[in-house]
Amino acid sequence: MSLLVKDLYKFLENLAPLQIAEPRDNNGLQIGSYNSSVSGILLTVDVTKNAIFYALEKNLNLIISHHPLIFNPLSCILKDELKGELIYLLIKHDLNLISWHTPLDKISEGVSEAFLKALNFESSDFIIKEEKFNQKFGLGRVVYLKKSIKLQDLAEKISHIIDSWIMVVGDLDSSINSFGFCGGSGSFLKDELKKIGVYTLITSDVKYHTAKDSLEEGFNFIIIDHGLSESFILPVLKDKLQKFFSEKNVVLPIEIYKEPSPYKIFKNKRRD
What we know:
Layout: H1 5-15, E1 28-31, E2 41-44, H2 49-57, E3 62-65, H3 82-92, E4 96-99, H4 102-106, H5 111-118, E5 125-132, E6 135-150, H6 151-162, E7 166-169, E8 175-185, H7 190-195, E9 200-204, H8 208-217, E10 220-224, H9 226-230, H10 233-248, E11 254-257
Parallel strand pairs: 2-3, 2-11, 3-4, 8-9, 9-10
Antiparallel strand pairs: 1-4, 5-6, 6-8, 7-10
């Protein structure tokens, strides 16, 4: 039995329904055909040239990305611009692209939960709770610790797991007994956490003024790379796909492609 692109679309729809997506989000099949036969799947956070070349090298003709390649409406597709070049590459090599973004952020076993499980933390609930069509979902997760730890110890644990840079806003010696996590850009959840007495948030893309005000207020941030914070959903998605294939008696290769943070930390070594 072979699977078509539309079968994988239905799998994702059952896992993380499009009806819970954020209104401006763009999910689903972005390039290709629902009726294309799938030779293999590449899972990635972002669609990049390296990801596309990796898929071609491994003969994987379906890319499932977390971030949409096409987010805002396109007025033109130009080969001389990066997005146009990527679209041309995908079409030229007959690759299919499905993007599944905020629905994967908002399900209970989604992006935030995947990160926390990788750190061996157990979450209690969403930071922002939503319900639609008798389904509960939301944004971010809250963790209540059985034993308080220092902010520095939590930061070191995270740094070890992601093997990349982190930034901290707050007193490293402060003791915390709870924190929130939101994959991607989640600094807007700060006020929601404060309402429930949680004063630490792990997330990405925290702006200067938010960080400055938080330091004054005694609110802590642990800031990590956006793409890395969401990449922990990829192994989870791979496991669920493999179970789906087993039920269908199908054997298909699934590869995960992760890229390092685009940021390089430069520290000037001044000489006296």
